[in-house]
Design goal:
FAD/NAD(P)-binding domain; D-Amino Acid Oxidase, Chain A, domain 2; 2 domains; eight-stranded mixed beta sheet; binds flavin-adenine dinucleotide
């Protein structure tokens, strides 16, 4: 028996699904957002989320337009004003300052749980939105008239449109049979929060090491969130080091740019993969965010890409709704797919190319890489373009 009918059912209330729900419910589209976890659960004041995202200015502008940016800033955001990138081989380095591009900041680093909490709090205040936590989608069936969705709590919902924002292992993608291509990088990203001896200077630091990049991202309270990519074996070994040895290894890997470190809390690790789907939609169903593309985190673009998907999908759905048309017709959903596919594939290709360029250590590649960085670093014009790209403008 169907318990309730909605215009849009969104499965996955991470940053991307929750942002889409906000954009739609804000414009009186009747939405249900379903998540396996509880994004509104509170946490101890002195704890830090291991999952952080460097948000571009265009993602920040989205949150401003939804009226939640002030909440995010209040809980804890860190502006990034500069970027410093250097290579383990030779003296290649690149320093970019947003002030040179006429902007006060390039973006901000925010713990994922803070952004998600701010979005869910806004959703709680919207009449057009129902929120279901600790609930998963078990199955769905679509036909010309709508989608029937079976939930883990035994309830059934009906919707005109089903959105899969359920991350890289998307169950909706699996049920739909939409193909998923890609490869494992045989690398893992070690994540941790550390207190640096020296100030982080509102700068995102990134050193390219033989096994992968080490990113030191500034976060609230003067702390650093690290994303340290290495082979699976090295990452496993670094996870097992005692705290002092781990901090020593980190100081050495970062060439003491920020001095020594103190580890705060636990370390975690994510296996890295590249994954993409050639199709974004099927009858009355559409995928967004990591459910259709998972990229290497080296330039911190995954969430930003997903948010751009959400903006594009909201736009076509709202347009159809305003005109009284079927919001889930293939005409509407394919328009979203066409808008996003090129951009997503370009970013995936770029990140994969960078990963290979900086992973290559045969004689000529590191020399060419260093020369390239030197040329870029001496050109204000190119640096400003990179800065604008990093801002998502
Ligand atoms: C180490 C690392 C560092 C990164 N750094 C950055 C960065 O600096 N900047 C950036 O832009 N990106 C970064 N990314 C990528 C970014 O984290 C992801 O692209 C982003 O979180 C994807 O958001 P999403 O909402 O699509 O998916 P997710 O964040 O994975 O959210 C999916 C949601 O769906 C729910 N869910 C899953 N299955 C079901 C189900 N069956 N039923 C109901 N709910 C379900 C989950 O509970 C979850 O809340 C990084 C990634 C990694 C691994």
């Amino acid at each position: 028996m169907v318990n309730k009918t909605y215009q849009v059912a969104i499965v996955g209330g991470g940053m991307v699904g929750a942002a889409l729900a906000c954009m739609l419910a804000d414009k009186n589209v009747n939405v249900v957002l379903i998540d396996a976890g509880d994004p509104m659960a509170t946490w101890p004041d002195d704890s830090y989320d291991l999952r952080v995202s460097a948000l571009t200015l265009s993602s920040i502008n989205l949150f401003k337009s939804l009226g939640i940016w002030d909440d995010i800033v209040e809980i804890g955001e860190q502006a990034v004003e500069k970027m410093f990138v250097w290579d383990h081989f030779g003296g290649g380095e690149l320093d970019i300052d947003s002030a040179d591009a006429g902007e006060p900041q390039m973006g901000s680093v925010v713990e994922n749980r803070i952004t998600v909490l701010a979005l869910w709090k806004k959703l709680q205040s919207l009449e057009c939105c129902d929120l279901l936590t600790s609930t998963t989608l078990d199955d769905y069936q679509a036909d010309d008239n709508g989608v029937e969705i079976a939930l883990s709590n035994g309830k059934q919902l009906n919707a005109s449109l089903l959105v899969g924002a359920d991350g890289s292992n998307s169950k909706i993608r699996q049920i739909s049979g939409i193909e998923n291509y890609g490869w494992e990088y045989q690398q893992k990203a070690l994540v941790a929060t550390v207190k640096p001896e020296k100030s982080h200077q509102n700068t995102a630091w990134q050193r390219f090491l033989p096994e992968g990049p080490l990113a030191l991202l500034p976060i609230r309270d003067g702390l650093i969130s690290i994303v340290w990519t290495s082979t699976t074996e090295t990452t496993e070994a670094n996870l097992k080091l005692d705290e002092t040895s781990f901090c020593d290894a980190l100081a050495e890997a970062s060439e003491q740019q920020l001095g020594n470190f103190e580890l705060l809390g636990a370390r975690g690790a994510f296996p890295l993969k590249l994954q993409f789907s050639p199709e974004y939609t099927q009858q009355r169903m559409v995928l967004i965010g990591d459910a259709i593309h998972t990229i290497h985190p080296l330039a911190g673009q995954g969430a930003n890409l997903g948010l751009t998907d959400a903006i594009a999908l909201a736009e076509v759905v709202l347009q159809a709704n305003e005109k009284g048309r079927d919001i889930a017709s293939q005409q509407v959903l394919r328009r979203y797919e066409r808008q996003r596919k090129g951009d997503n594939l370009l970013m995936m290709g770029l990140m994969d190319g960078f990963k290979r360029l900086y992973g290559a250590d045969d004689t000529l590649v590191p020399i060419a890489r260093n020369m390239g960085m030197g040329i870029v670093n001496s050109s204000m014009l190119i640096k400003n373009q990179i800065c604008k790209y990093a801002m998502g403008l």
